[in-house]
Structures
1.
Amino acid sequence: MCRVAEGAAMGEEKDGAKEGRKGEGPGPEIVGVWPAAVWIIVGAGHYLNDPDHFAGWKGALYFVFGTGMVALVGGIASLSARRTVAGIQERLLKEVRHRRDLTTWAIALGLRGLVGLGEAVLVTLLALSVVAMLG
């Protein structure tokens, strides 16, 4: 009986500790799907234009290693940029409007679109420079 009570108490502690940690870590959103998708699209476009350019180790290096690195590094940078923009947006919108409405939603959507466009441009430029270096 004593062990059952201890196990129940430990189980309650573990569940309580898990609930407290849910918001702390970045979680699965740390992997940047958007930057990796842009990387793959740029590489696929170059592959369709000149398949011999990605023959052998160059294709493996670009698509396997490069996509993983862009997904991880791009995800971390993207998460940081999104959190920074969200924080700035919250402060600015609190000064102008004190409640959420359609206008604040449109502004938030526009800012997210600008961050996504900036990420896409940076990843495209990186992909083009890597393709040129592999050349």
2.
Amino acid sequence: MFPLLLLACCFFVVLLVPVALFVFTSVFRQACVLCGLQRPSVATAAGVMLLIWVSKTASQAVMDVVVIESCKAVGVPRWEANIIVALLFLPIDLIISAALHAGLMNIKFGKGVEVWFVMMLIYLSVFAVAGSVAAVIFVALN
């Protein structure tokens, strides 16, 4: 029974990857349009998002190790260290994303920053709506 469940979970994750790539690429393309830039093709947007993701993942891994080990030495709980990493990584995320977007799409760095902010606002609004719907359902059921 367990191998079948594991296989089903792996299959679900494999099916989820293209959906996630489509969502992130669509948000990126829409952010470019909202910032007054030309809408990139799907392949270009996917390539830019993939390169940004790889760069951010590598730098976040280094920051995770440094901050978590520092917090462990001071005695700060792990969950607080994760919050510190998330907050400290936002400006690094901004610089990496804006620089790669500007370099790959041949635009100014300021426009890359603008696209990053618009993307973050789109993600924030989606999470706010989903949280509000979940809160309304939770209150309605209790």
